[in-house]
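Researcher: Next sequence.
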Amino acid sequence: MFKKILVPVDGSETAWRALNNALEIGKKFESEILVVNVIQPYNNAALLAVPLDHATINQGNSELEKVGDKVLELAKEMVGSYPHKVEYDMEVGHPSERIIALSKKVEADAIVLGSRGLSGIAEFFLGSVSSKVSQYATVPVLIVK
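Model: Next structure:
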C-alpha cells in the first residue's frame, strides 16, 4: 500500500514524532522512507524592509545548509536500524512547494509530516506548511501533532 513514504524534517519536535510514525508505518508495509529537509533561502524579495548585500545573503544560506545537514544527521541517528531502504535529501525553496514537487518526482505513496501550527491570525494569512501540503498533495498526508 505505502511503498515509499516522504518525511520532511526541520528539527522540530513534531517533525521527529512524524519520523517515528513514518518508521512504524513503514515497518508494517515494508516501505522505503525518504527523509527530506527543505531550506528556504534568504533572498532580497523576502527581506524588502532590510535589504542585504549578496555576500550577507550567501553567508546566511550557507548557515542554513549547515543546519539542514545537522537535521539530516539527527534523522539518520533516529532511523537507526530501520530494516528497509532509507534515503536522505536536502531541497532548497519554499517548503510546501518543494515537498509537493518532490513527492511527485519520487512517486511517493504518502507524506508524513509534523504540524507546526501558527496561531490565530498568522495562520489565517500565511497558512502552515502542513496545511498547504495537505491541500495540494496528490497522495495521502498524515499530519502528526
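Model: The beta strands are 4-8, 32-39, 86-92, 110-114, 141-144. The chain has a mean pLDDT of 84.
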